[in-house]
Design goal:
Blueprint (H helix, E strand, L loop, with lengths): L14 E5 L3 H7 L4 H22 L3 E8 L7 H24 L2 E6 L7 H13 L6 E9 L1 H17 L10 H7 L10 E4 L18 E4 L9 H12 L9 H4 L1
Parallel strand pairs: 1-2, 1-5, 2-4, 3-4, 5-6
Bound molecules: farnesyl diphosphate.
Amino acid sequence: MIDKKQLDSNNIPRHIAIIMDGNGRWAKKKGLFRAAGHEKGTKAVREVVEGSAEIGIKHLTLYAFSTENWNRPKLEVDTLMKLLVSSLKKEIKTLQENNIQLNAIGNLQNLPKKARVELMEVIEKTKSNDHMVLTLALSYGSREELIKTIEEISIKVKNGVISPHLINEAVINEHLYTKNLPDVDLLIRTSGEQRISNFLLWQIAYAELYFTEILWPDFRRTDLFEAILNYQKRERRFGKTSEQLS
Ligand code: FPP
């Protein structure tokens, strides 16, 4: 088991993003309904949020619900939305105690009103917290985000607000849902699947990828620390050579 003392405090990733996968399989293995997996998944959420705050992560982004997840059976979608509302009500205390600001990215207009109202309330209440920013990706899809970005920039070009020659990375960043977030340093996916599933495609350009077999409901802060330890052993070259870095 990894202890946080084993981590190099000078090389803590600034932004960690997590694809929380395996709730359904966890439940199936135990002969339970999928909802029980999602419910248990909220415990893992609390673990990583507290663990991240503990070691000084500045940005934690969790893929809680994708644009594609709307295609799941209505009962499961309803369960996830109810869990979101109950977790927000319950965890506001954890967020305040740990000085964490809540943020959300995605097409939030698609969320049921109750979830949207609760979400906005917690975002408002935690807006002055500055130890860490917890971003929930809800009704989020990277391609949808990029289409929205291209549309907004095109309108500005058409109206003469932006010259096409001046479109650069900064302009694109400003139009993404993640405009206030730095690039992702470490992307974690649980449950043994090794794919990105339409998550932060632009923002992970130079992220280190870490895949673990652990199913999301079983993921604990020590597993997070293990992922960070693994990250710290890697050399991030950003296209340069090793010699240039040293
Ligand atoms: C993936 O497991 C997980 C999700 C689609 C939802 C993640 C939601 C939670 C962890 C709980 C609620 C979160 C918050 C922030 C309140 P899966 O169902 O795809 O698992 P499977 O691949 O094994 O079927």
